[in-house]
Amino acid sequence: MVTLALPKGRLFEPVTALLEQGGFAVAAALRSNPRRLVLEDGELRVVVVKDADVPAYVSQGVADGGFVGLDHILEAGADLLRLRRFSFGQCRMCLLARGDRPVPSMTKPFRLATKYPRLAQKLLRQRGLWAEVVPLAGSVELAATLDLAPLVLDLVETGTTLRENGLMIVETWLSVAPYFVANRGSWATGFEALRAVLHRLGGGHEELSDH
């Protein structure tokens, strides 16, 4: 039986719909039992975890594969195979600031708040910038609003949250899409089973990255 890690956040609904379209009976169980964390239908087991935890469950072999955004893949730095990129749930990793003030200067060291400290450091290095990164668990918009940090790095999907909190986009640093990822060992030993799952999800089994 193939075990997949499914994120309980913003990707939960589109991934459940994808499983439903693939004819997996576990999709109905996910909809009728949204609080269950482990469900199975005889051919597929699904483990519902926090979005950021998907890379850990897959890389450690608890799950053979899973669905996760590029943001969490890069933040975790886990050794995963990226087998398919999806068109749904795409968004942007953006540098944000208060809209009622001049854009803070980045020519000298500055403070940056984010839920993605590891990824933030990588993106800063790519741009030749230096910042004190303040790690937060949530509501990073408040960091700029309440002057914890003049700049924040976070995902932007529709822009509604930005407008509601008086923030603006300074720069877009990364395009983020969901991926189907697999454990390298599971792919090597259970290739046919995972390949069959991918086929039913409407995708091939081409490896898209060397991660």
From TrEMBL:
Q: What is this protein called?
A: ATP phosphoribosyltransferase
In UniProt terms, what function does this protein have? Catalyzes the condensation of ATP and 5-phosphoribose 1-diphosphate to form N'-(5'-phosphoribosyl)-ATP (PR-ATP). Has a crucial role in the pathway because the rate of histidine biosynthesis seems to be controlled primarily by regulation of HisG enzymatic activity.
Biological process (GO) annotations held by this record are:
L-histidine biosynthetic process
Mention one GO molecular function. Answer: ATP phosphoribosyltransferase activity
Q: Name one matching Pfam family.
A: HisG
Domain of life per record: Bacteria
Q: Which PANTHER family match?
A: ATP PHOSPHORIBOSYLTRANSFERASE (PTHR21403:SF8), ATP PHOSPHORIBOSYLTRANSFERASE ATP-PRTASE (PTHR21403)
Keywords, A to Z?
Amino-acid biosynthesis, Glycosyltransferase, Histidine biosynthesis, Transferase
Recorded catalytic activity of this chain's protein: 1-(5-phospho-beta-D-ribosyl)-ATP + diphosphate = 5-phospho-alpha-D-ribose 1-diphosphate + ATP
UniProt keyword Glycosyltransferase, yes or no: yes
Q: Which GO terms describe its cellular component?
A: cytoplasm
Q: What is the main EC category here?
A: transferase
Pathway note = Amino-acid biosynthesis; L-histidine biosynthesis; L-histidine from 5-phospho-alpha-D-ribose 1-diphosphate: step 1/9
The residues covered by the ATP phosphoribosyltransferase catalytic domain are 50-201
Listed Gene3D superfamilies? Periplasmic binding protein-like II (3.40.190.10)
The EC code for this enzyme is: 2.4.2.17
Give the taxonomic lineage as stored in the record.
Bacteria, Pseudomonadati, Acidobacteriota, Thermoanaerobaculia, Thermoanaerobaculales
